[in-house]
Amino acid sequence: MDTILKEIDAANLPPFEIPTEPREPILKVLRTPDYYFDNLPGFNFNPNYINSKQHGNIRIHYLDEGPKDAKETILLMHGEPTWCYLYRYMIPKFVDAGFRVVAPDLVGFGRSDKPSERTDYSYERQIDWMSDVVVDANIHNCTPFLQDWGGLIGLRLIARYPERFSRIVVSNTGLPMGDNGGKNTAGTAFQIWASVISQQVPDWGKIIQSGCNRKLSEDERNAYDAPYPSEQYKAAPRTYPQLVPQFDQHPSVEENKGAFRRVLSKWNRPLLTLFGSDDAITAGGERMFKENCPGARLPGVEHAILHANHFIQEDAGAEIVSRMLQFIKTFPLTSSKI
């Protein structure tokens, strides 16, 4: 990612457009044909779907591995511009440890339906769609791993359904709450990503590689492009970088502030941060959680900066699983199933 950032003149960035909340129902939805997902390296999982009626008729894909009657569930939330393929190496390790593992594709990504217009998407709509997954898939006694937009969405899910979550693991993510009157401006790296790179890059495999320390194979890079047969399927990954609430005028700033004030700032269940040492986008983001969430300060929580880049799952997946299993063992389940 650093190499790409250096190629762009930060002094001449186009202005960041403040999004507005959609007011019209979704009329046209695209669905990537199943054969695009055949024979992807390391990805031998059966698809599962729910049908959401929120904002239109949307089919949402998720992986559901391990015993359905497991006492605890691991929820793996991806971000932009990835999909649940990102967790292909982590899922079997959690299953082997006895957990149910659920990994959804955000709407517009992966095998989930793709509303065709950029104006069909919003931060709040994605939370509504992922809420349907949490409820319809009967997720409870859950420890989520939240990275990138998976954190922006997942933290709001936790604030909406706190009784369903036993612990939290956050990684290379945050909960943006505007710029505090211009005092907390987004970093140049993110502005370049949101305003230039994400709008111009012809495919996503190159971007994923630029956010990894390890070398992905050509087949792995191509797998990240599999959900998007043509440009018309890319409305969501083009749009979501512009939907991050980095300015006070963003329509979701107040919702994020409320979620943090009501639930996350009072979260006294265990919270673990696992951030990447080489991530230019979210560097230092772990401090918000460690300083403001009581559960992050519990004795026995072993926060870590891992030798990894932004897509930490690709660089340090095995270490993440090992640290999460130890985290769960250190803080055993105390609440009952809802």
Describe this protein with a few key phrases:
338 residues; eight-stranded mixed β-sheet; alpha/beta; 11 helices
Give a structural overview:
With 338 residues, the chain is an alpha/beta fold. The strands form 2 sheets. An 8-stranded mixed sheet has the order 2-3-5-4-7-8-9-10, with helices on both faces. The N and C termini lie far apart (42 Å). It is 31% helix and 14% strand.
Structural class: alpha/beta
Question: Any idea what the radius of gyration is?
Answer: 19 Å
Q: Describe the biggest sheet? A: 8 strands, mixed
Low-confidence stretches: none
Our measurement of the CA-to-CA distance between the termini, rounded to an integer number of angstroms, reads: 42 Å
β-sheet strand percentage: 5-15%
Q: Helical residue percent?
A: 25-40%
Pattern of helices and strands: HEEEEHEEHEHEHHHHHEHEH
Overall residue-averaged pLDDT value: 92
Number of strands: 10
